[in-house]
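Methods — Computational structure assignment.
A single polypeptide chain was analysed. Its primary sequence is given first, followed by the predicted tertiary structure written as C-alpha cells.
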Amino acid sequence: MNQKTTTGRRGLLAKTAVAGIVAVVAGVYVTLWGAGNGAEAATCQASAATVARIEPLIQGEVAALLPAEEPQDVSMLAFNGEDGAPMTLADFAGRAVLLNLWATWCAPCREEMPALDRLQAERGGENFQVVTVNVDVGDPAKPAAFLEEIGTEALSDYRDPRMKIFNDLKTRGLAFGMPTTLLIDDKGCQVAALHGPAEWDSPDALAVIDALAGG
C-alpha cells in the first residue's frame, strides 16, 4: 500500500470520526430540545381553551391578531424594571399580559402607545397588565423623554437595551419587526400575536382583552 493511499484512508477515518461526534452531539441537542418542548406543551396545554375563546373575537381593529396554533411558555422572557433591576414575565404570574415591544425609532410604535396607555388605565389590575418594553440600544433618556412627551400615565417604563427579548422571540418565530405584541394568559403562555400596530383601546381590542383576562 503506497503512502498516498494510506494518507487518504486516514483522512477518511478522521472525517468519519468527526461526523460521528457531530451526529451524537446533534442527537443530544435534538433530544433535549424535544424534551423541553414536551414539557412546555404540557404546561400550556390548557391554554388552548383561551385561544378558542379569543379566536371568534378577532376582527375589526385587531383583525391582524394571529391565534397561537400551539401556545408557548414565555414566562421566562427577561427585561429590566423601572428601577433597572432584572425581571421576567413570571413576575406577573396569575395575570394575563399584553406584552408590547417598541422603540422610539419605530413610528407605528409611537402612534399606538397612547392607546396602550389608555388600555392599561381602563383594564389594568389584578387580572390584566400591559407590559410595554422599550428596546432602544442608545441613550436611555430618549424613551423616557418620549413617554413624558406623550403624557403616559398608566404604563410602566420597562426596558431591554440589549434587545435580547426581541431576539429570543424572533428565534421562536414570535417576532418579526416592530411593534411586536403578544397576548399571554395567566399561566405565562403566549396565546396570540400581532406583528404591527393596533388600536388597543378600541371595542374590538377590549373584547379580546376581556376574553383573555376573564377566562
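Note: The longest helix spans residues 3-43.
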